[in-house]
């Protein structure tokens, strides 16, 4: 189900879950886990260039 998320978003996760006959609790938990992990990861990826630019330690590395 998570492969569906990364290839097309939450709608793909839900479609695959329905195809696998997953329970509603499993679908809700999978969507919640995706948001809990995905949103902070995206924020970090967008912030990384600015963090790199302002970090003397990373420039030395």
Please explain how this structure is put together.
Helix 1 (2-8) runs antiparallel to helix 2 and helix 2 packs antiparallel against helix 3. The protein is 87% helix and 0% strand. It has one domain (2-60). It is mostly helical and 61 residues long. The longest helix has 31 residues, at 24-54.
Q: Summary?
A:
By secondary structure, the protein is an all-alpha fold.
Which key phrases capture this entry?
single chain, 61 residues, mainly alpha, 4 helices, 87% helix, elongated
Give the SSE string: HHHH
**pLDDT averaged over residues:** 89
- The poorly predicted ranges are none
Report Rg.
Answer: 17 Å
Number of beta strands: 0
Work out the oligomeric state of the chains in this entry: single chain
Structural class: mainly alpha
Helix fraction, binned, reads over 70%
- Major sheet, described briefly? none
- First and last CA, distance: 38 Å
Strand content: under 5%
DSSP helical segment count: 4
Count of all domains:
1
Global outline:
elongated
SSE topology:
Layout: H1 2-8, H2 10-19, H3 24-54, H4 56-60
Helix pairs in contact: 1-2, 2-3
